Amino acid sequence: MENNKSGESIIQYSIRIQLMLNKLLVQQVQNHLGHSTTLPMAFNALLESISVSFDRYEDTIKRLESSVNNCTNELGQLNEKLQDETAGLKQAHYELSRIFNQVNEGFFAKDIITDKYIQMSVGCEKIYGYSVEDFYTNSLLWFQVIHPDDRLLIDKENEQLNKGIQIKSSYRIFHKDTTTRWIEVKAVPVMVDGRLARVEGVVNDITEQKNAEKLLMDSEVKYRSFFENNMDGMMLSKPDGAILEANPAACEIFGATEEEICGYSRAELLDFAEPALLNLMEIRSRTGKVKGELNFFRSDRTIFRAEMASSIFKDANGEDRTCVIVRDITDRKKAEEQIADSEQRYRQIVETAQEGIWMMDKNYHTVFTNKKMCNLLEYSEGEMLDKHLTFFMGEQGRALAAPSIERRKTGISENMDLPFITKSGKHIWTNLSTSPLLNNEGQFAGGLAMVTDITKRKTDEELIKKSAASLDLKNKELKRKNTELEQFAYVASHDLQEPLRTTSSFVQLLQQQYKGKLDEKADKYLEFIVDSSDRMKVLIKDLLDYSKIGSKYEQERVDCNQVMKNVIADLNKAITDSAAIIIADNLPSISGYVTEIKQLFQNLIINAIKFRKPGEEPYLKISANLTGNYWHFSFADKGIGIDKAHHERIFIIFQRLHTRTEFEGSGIGLSHCKKIVELHHGKIWVESVQGRGSIFYFTIPEKMPGERRV
């Protein structure tokens, strides 16, 4: 029931209004007609009747209101229950839809009359690769993706569905990604008035199952081929010993047919008098597999010796089965006996040999050595057995032996020198003539080496090498000095004479034409004389500096970082005036000549400042890194660069690429650099493109000849 603003119901509100009207009526009557005592009795009775009627009416209304309230409460409870049930149905529908769209199987429903899909789950998208909308818009899509070779199955399925028969079939489809998949379809027909009206079903991707079946089939074929063609006898039996199968090799070994072998008992095949039999059977029972040698009976009851391997496994049905492999070793046993007889004779020969004989297994563990080999390494035979080849080597020997070991495994024989360390710690050199050992199957089984002590020869060779190296170094030094002398002689006979000739000529002119007087021309000539004299001084100084490089052979540790600081301090004015930017990485300490290294750095830095691009600030990046046994230094600038044709020429003494008016200098700076680097047994070169800057590289050995590491 609805309520007004004060909270009371409409019925309560109506009753209250009626009572008020009733009281009002009585009051008005009394006001106009006087007190009830003065009114006619009949009129008073009417008023009383009206009042009673309204009182009864109020009671009736209250009962009616109570009844309505009860109904309202019941309706409210029913409404709440209905809302709860509706929410539950919505949740169930949501869960059902979620499950319907998340399962791997695809669900579908197709209206046969309209030839349209009316329901299809997201699972179909996963299986076919096409969206649900694709199937809704193209009802023939499911047929179009079927493999052409499998489409004949569809006609048979349609016949069964039209008869109201459920179907289950599998066939191939082309997935949207062009791969071929196997699917399984289960469809249920819905009949209306005896006719097929709708088909509902489930589609599942069974590609992995089909692949597994194929692998299983292939595996069965391979197993059968292995079983039938194996050179060893193979038999499958039950745990009680009953033989189920025997391959052709087993039939040949036992001299019986498969049917006959399957009828044999254990006692008819095995020699139970064999002492090792019970022990081998106990091992197989405990571990599930065993391997050993036993005596067997052929069908004619002759005994033969065989290698036997047996294992217990479960077949496809989960039943225990036993596999027994038998290899006849009768001939091998006879050969072993013959070898045993001859082994003693061979051992006598081996022990008296003048070379060490060393035999190793396939893992290069020692299996045999003669006395000469033991004496060579100062170990007893017992101490050497089972020891790996590298046990007797130092780091150098292991590095040399590693590739040889791998070559031996490939069947290669070779002769090589290897160092060893004796038991007393003495280092010796040996020559090994090595050969691989192969088993009956042609597989690598170990190595054999004939070992000769060549320590004295190696020592002599090392002395010869050192002498040759020293001689070669002296020859190179002599050649370098001769080259310098030749260059100096050339300069002395040509370039050094030119300033002197100039001076002499102008002095003669001065004497001939202006003797006893001075004028402007005389002053000019005098300027020429002074200029020539100055250039002569520069040339002489540079030549003297060049000749002094390496004159003091006192090597020391040179901190290149400190050298850089000293050079930058000396060139501070030139660096500041040109606003040069010089960046140097952390540089190493090297063994060398500190004065020459400083001059090398200074010349390269001056070059970078001098040969900068017009209007640009000089830039130089200096770095060094250790590559192999050499420190590689680089001085990279952003200057004018050098044409490739002149990369070699710039290091030749007095070879200038520019006129003196363009750039100052005598053209000897890079020659100094070359001589300094070569003095340190390194080399110097440049990489440059004209207009794009240059990088000067030079190398300094990490360790100078004759220097010992600390």
Overview of this protein structure:
There is one protein chain. The chain has 710 residues and is α+β, with helices and mostly antiparallel strands. The chain folds into five domains: 1-100; 103-211, Beta-Lactamase, CATH 3.30.450.20; 230-328, Beta-Lactamase, CATH 3.30.450; 334-453, 2-Layer Sandwich (Beta-Lactamase); 549-701, Heat Shock Protein 90. The chain is built from 22 helices and 22 strands. The strands form five sheets. Strands 2-1-5-4-3 form a five-stranded antiparallel sheet, with helices on both faces. Strands 7-6-10-9-8 form a five-stranded antiparallel sheet, with helices on both faces. A five-stranded antiparallel sheet has the order 12-11-15-14-13. A hairpin with a 2-residue loop joins β19 and β20. The longest helix has 62 residues, at 41-102. It is flat and about 180 Å long. The model is unreliable at 658-663 (pLDDT under 50).
Low-confidence stretches: 658-663
Mean pLDDT: 80
Share in β-strands: 15-25%
> How helical, in percent, are the residues?
40-55%
**Total beta strands:** 22
What is the 3D form? flat
How much is the radius of gyration in Å?
A: 57 Å
Biggest β-sheet strands, sense, barrel: 5 strands, antiparallel
Q: Mind telling me which CATH architecture of the largest domain this is?
A: 2-Layer Sandwich
Distance between the termini: 108 Å
CATH topology of the largest domain: Heat Shock Protein 90
The CATH homologous superfamily of the largest domain is called: Histidine kinase-like ATPase, C-terminal domain
CATH class of the largest domain: Alpha Beta
Q: Supply the number of structural domains.
A: 5
Estimated structural class: alpha+beta
Sequence of strands across the biggest β-sheet: 2-1-5-4-3
Number of helices, counting only DSSP H or I runs of 4 residues or more: 22
